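Supplementary Note 3. Input sequence used for the single-chain structure prediction.
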Amino acid sequence: MTAKKRRKSDEPILIRLRRELLKPLTLFVSRRSKIGRMLRTRGCKKLPSNDFLQQAIERAVAIVDGLDPHIDVLFIGSSHIQKNIAPAAFQTLRGWNAGVSSGDLKISTEIYKALRQKWPKSEGQCVVLGQDFWLPMTQAEYTYEYFQTTILHELLGISYRSSWLMRHAEKTCRKIINQVRHIESWNSQLKFRGLMPMESETKAIPQEKVQARVQGHLKLLTFEPTELKWLQELRNRVAEDGRTLILLRPPHREDYLNALNQSPQRDLLWAKFGTAAEGLPVIDAFQFPLSPESWNDMDHLSESGATLFTRALEPYLLKLRKQIDKNTFCKDFGKIILMSEDCSNPHLTTP
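The predicted structure, written as discrete structure tokens, is reproduced below.
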């Protein structure tokens, strides 16, 4: 099933007509103005099909209801965590993948706040947050995957930035959530184990699409980093629980990196984090080399690629946990662990 077919929903013709009439107006209205957000989120966006929504809801329910309480590492963040981390591939550690598509800092913080109640504290536990460079500016309610906020609102009570913009999706999401939670044969542990299955993609992506995706991400750098308050709250909650927050810069394919390197903003990618990330350990896998068959698209791994990457990541997490236990790493602010092809000897480098 193609993405276009998957996202096609059976909407009344008047709603579709309204959306098509409002679309031209978005060309003349700022993305971050109240009117711009109203037009794009309520006026022009549509819910995907019920089948696609059910898949997204099943994953969200699995994250909340299926948590393994004996884990050492919890992963949170966007689709770059959701689709790139396969905890079942760990040899020593036990992990849980709670990443969601378009997961912003607010969503990641709220997910952690919900899961911390079900995760008994023990020595050496870590929370790994995917550090996308656009994270300080991203507000998921105004992205293409905006319905994720509605799902998590229904599951966790996450507050909306604008309830009027989101309320139109609540009834549909609530109905599907109730259906999913009443399926007795559904086994979140076996079905998910922290990895959302992805469709196989063998075709090369045209260069113009790569450029468009990179430019879309870079566009967010022009906005103010309004979301860093959520990173601070996440840091506080993780510290209260005696756990360590680690930032992970997820891998990107060579064509994405090449397009990014052509931009004058390439040296400023992480600048928006400012002092908000100061003192946090960072595992930098942004340019980590993986074979062509490991990728589903330019910034998401295939299932086999996620398995390979997770296995390569484990020694770095083990090294960090060892240093954290000795209370040596966190005194050395501003250091980054750079992932390389030689995963047997993780090393520190300056940013």
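Residues 69-139+193-349 form a domain with the Rossmann fold fold (CATH 3.40.50.1110). The longest helix spans residues 303-325.
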